[in-house]
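Morning. Coffee machine broken again, so started the prediction first thing and wrote up yesterday's gels while waiting. Chain of 211 residues, entered below exactly as on the submission form.
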Amino acid sequence: MGRYTGPVCKLCRREGQKLFLKGTKCYTEKCPIERRNYAPGQHGLAQARRRKASDYAQQLREKQKVKRIYGVSEQYFKTLFERAAKQPGVTGENLLVLLESRLDNVVHRLGFASSRKQARQLVQHRHMEVNGRTVDVASYQVKPGDEVRVRSGSRDLVPVQASLEAKTRPETVRWLTIDEGARAGRMLERPTRADIPLAVQEQLIVELYSK
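Came back before lunch.
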């Protein structure tokens, strides 16, 4: 499946909550979900009036929600889940940690990009370095101790400056530290579930893939 290029507000309406896919704009613009709190399409309103969704439907929606928040494909998501299942610990938490450790997500969490989509573009256009080496793979797994830095020739990019100066950008998470002047940040440790500010029920995803 190719990457979704349509209106992102439709995705929020489909999941029934704001996914903040437009970055800081989600804090300043009136979201369509506030006016039409039901799924998009001609049957969206009718579906909202139906009886409670089945267990499978709830599990599927939770998986789709996480996929859309991080902007990853179905095949990649399934591969990452299989990797998480092989690791010690709780599979659902392992999955979220792997997603949070992606380079594009770390760039977004550090505040160098207003959204994960914008962060992915910065990475793919070779504007980011990890430990002094240019990395253009958005799915690159950042490890504790790694330094993520905007390349010297890209520090004055308008998107980077605008994101850092935005008054509505979220606070940097505890497991990351940032030096805004140097346009650099570092992962202090692997995040735990308590460190991931995401309103999702990852156990439902585990139940879905366990069938």
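The CA atoms of residues 82 and 191 lie 19 Å apart. Going to sketch it on the whiteboard this afternoon.
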